[in-house]
Automatic annotation (TrEMBL):
SUPFAM superfamilies: Bet v1-like. Pfam families: PDF2_C, START. GO terms for molecular function: DNA binding; lipid binding. Residues 1-26, 83-119 are annotated as: Disordered. It comes from the Eukaryota. Keywords: DNA-binding, Homeobox, Nucleus, Transcription, Transcription regulation. Coiled coil: none annotated. This is START domain-containing protein. Residues 83-103 have a biased composition (Polar residues). The keyword Ribonucleoprotein does not apply.
Length: 647
């Protein structure tokens, strides 16, 4: 480890989590304040590594009486988050996009480019839509569109593979030309011309083309237009009606898919059905995200319709309603998308998911462009994977003897705390419009984004501000290798500043499913003379869609003891940091190895920062933490590419 990293590690250890008697929760201000510890390293800590930064994230010349200026983060596009909200949320919260009249030009400039600018344009307000869906002509149009969408979804889901569906590695993607033949009334001469243009594009290195909207989909144009359509099939140990309830109940849907759904609201119910969800039709709005601020969120208005198709098959379909409720700057539309759920003889459910959307991907960061355009990131397989992940988590929670923590109460508390940590992690690092990210300058080659988080209450003291910072990097190493390195407790001291030179061991764990790599662990970092310095709660898992995650948070000894003895985990403050590992391109049938896209994120307390403001000394420390961690990971998993003096 370089000198800065060693000093950072030594200073950070002075902030090991502690709990005062009677607090009941960890002393977060002492336990997580890495920034404050790092600042105490030297008096002249503001050096030339990071230039001063203004509130727009731009570098400043040395001015203002030679006083450095930090980040000034302006709140934008505040909206309620469903599913990721506090535990006390008992009802759906409607999204209320902020009007651009209330946003200063400087604020708009200061936001990260991944906070989509069209969200600042007045959309058809949720209130207006909620009123409109009550009108009989509108209700009739929504119903007609939903019924037609269900027909399209059923045909796509039940169609045999070739020629409509083509294999691309472990994915099924739609053959656009065959779709034109089967699902539209396009003239044969026009179809021949489209085929000629496509063949010409393929010969010139581009296979993209624009498909006309289907008979059930809205006919909008936006530039550039990108159509994604994929299909995936999965089997889960869950009754069809349980899955249907999960999809039709807003709160359950938002929570189960918290890694995809940022926020959602039901704006109106067209048909409430008869209590079995058969025929239920509701108008919704939702925002979808990836676990990085470098990929813009996707937001739309849509109808969700549930129908029993036969005695053993149900369908749930979404279709955009922007043709009924238009607004300028459309960037995302849902063509008929959703799933068919069929009960199997062994009491499992077979889920066939189709995700068919149109999106403007122009603002996607180059490192993610290939994945997003391939339908991997927002594709059907990812939705299926998270239903299966939820089903497995429920099974582990209910299992009488899941290995291995002594006592059912301790296992349950640990699983629930881990679930909250995981959901907070996805909420913290997304490009959701409620997260206002600033791009740091002067951070070398890494594209670092930073924002202030929620304040943390500290008993007897003023609340402490938290900061979140993240970056994504490319590695020439297969995702599996990166994942196993990061999840292995014996490797932690090779990249974690707080574990440098310390022995890390797993003292308790729960395996979630059949694979031992999917586990919730309690890690203990021992210092000199075997003194416990830190305890970490860590969850690691591979989601089945090619994405893997390692998420952890420090927990003090008394709080962890309470959890392992079955204590209530709901009020234990927890600040997750961690990693998301993606392949750099979709897998091929030949099993070609890919590189990795690694997203790192840290969420810590910083007593020097305030709400919407990060001082220059904290910005400097962020740069050092990111740079040191990235260099150490590169040195460990790709030693021929990057060398550094790491532990």
């Amino acid at each position: 480890m370089d000198q800065n990293g060693a000093e950072a590690a030594a200073a950070a250890r002075s902030g090991i989590p502690e709990t005062r008697a009677g607090d009941g929760v960890g002393n977060l201000e002492n336990g997580f304040d890495i920034i404050n510890a790092l600042e105490a390293i030297e008096d002249d800590r503001i050096v030339e590594e990071l230039p001063p930064i203004d509130h727009l994230g731009n570098g400043l010349d040395q001015a203002h009486d030679d006083q450095s200026v930090g980040f000034d983060i302006v709140e934008m596009n505040a909206q309620a988050t469903v599913g990721n909200a506090s535990q006390d949320s008992n009802s759906p919260t409607q999204v209320d996009p902020q009007s651009p009249q209330n946003i200063s030009s400087s604020a708009a400039s200061g936001a990260s480019s991944t906070n989509i600018q069209s969200d600042n344009i007045p959309r058809a307000s949720d209130l207006l839509i909620a009123v409109s869906v009550g009108a009989e002509p509108t209700r009739k149009k929504v119903m007609e569109q939903a019924v037609a969408a269900m027909n399209d979804l059923t045909r796509l889901a039940l169609a045999e593979g070739e020629p409509l569906w083509q294999r691309r590695g472990d994915m099924e993607v739609l053959n656009g030309l065959q779709y034109l033949r089967d699902f539209t009334s396009i003239d044969s001469m026009l179809l021949d011309e489209v085929m000629r243009l496509v063949n010409f594009s393929e010969q010139n290195g581009s296979a993209s083309f624009e498909l006309p909207s289907s008979s059930t989909g809205p006919a909008f144009e936006f530039n550039p237009l990108h159509i994604e359509c994929s299909r995936a099939i999965g089997f889960v140990d869950m009754a069809p009606m349980t899955i249907i309830e999960l999809l039709m109940d807003l709160k359950q849907w938002s929570e189960v898919f918290s890694n995809i759904v940022s926020s959602a609201a039901v704006l109106g119910v067209i048909s409430a059905a008869d209590g079995t969800f058969n025929g239920m039709l509701q108008v919704m709005t939702a925002e979808f995200h990836l676990h990085t601020p470098l990929v813009p969120p996707r937001k739309c208005y849509f109808a969700r319709y549930c129908k029993q198709l036969d005695s053993a098959t149900w369908g749930v379909v979404d279709v955009s309603l922007e043709n009924l409720f238009p607004y300028p700057g459309i960037q995302f539309l849902k063509r008929p998308s959703g799933c068919l759920i069929q009960q199997t003889p062994n009491q499992f459910s077979k889920i066939t998911w189709v995700e068919h959307v149109e999106s403007d991907n122009n603002l996607v960061h180059p490192i993610f462009q290939k994945l997003v355009n391939s339908a991997f990131v927002f594709g059907a397989k990812r939705w299926i994977a998270w239903i299966m992940q939820h089903c497995q988590w429920q099974s582990t929670l209910m299992a009488p003897n899941a290995p291995t923590i002594d006592g059912e109460n301790g296992r349950t508390s640990l699983l629930k705390l881990s679930e909250r940590m995981r959901k907070n992690f996805f909420r913290d690092i997304s490009a959701s419009t409620e997260n206002t990210w600033i791009k740091m300058t002067g951070t070398g080659a890494e594209d670092v984004r930073v924002r202030t988080g929620e304040s943390i209450p500290v008993p007897g003291r003023s609340p402490s501000t938290t900061i979140i910072f993240t970056t994504s990097i490319w590695l020439a190493t297969p995702p599996r290798k990166v994942f196993h390195f990061l999840r292995d407790e014996h490797s932690r001291n090779k990249w974690d500043l707080l574990s440098d030179g310390r022995f890390v061991r797993e003292i308790a764990y729960v395996i979630n499913g059949q694979s031992p790599e999917n586990r919730i662990s309690v890690l203990q970092v021992d210092g000199f003379q075997n003194k416990i310095e830190i305890l970490y709660l860590q969850e690691s898992f591979w989601d089945g869609a090619g994405c893997s995650y390692v998420i952890s948070a420090p927990v003090d000894i008394i709080a962890m003891s309470m959890i392992l003895n079955g204590g209530n985990p709901d009020y234990l403050p927890i600040l997750p940091s961690g990693f998301a590992v993606l392949p750099d391109k979709p897998a091929t049938l030949a099993g070609e190895e890919t590189g990795s896209i690694l997203t790192l994120a840290f969420h810590i307390v910083d007593c020097n920062s305030a709400e919407n403001y990060i001082p220059p000394e904290s910005a400097q420390t962020i740069d050092r933490v990111i740079s040191s961690t990235v260099a150490c990971i590169k040195a460990a998993v790709a030693p021929d590419i990057q060398q550094c003096n790491c532990p």
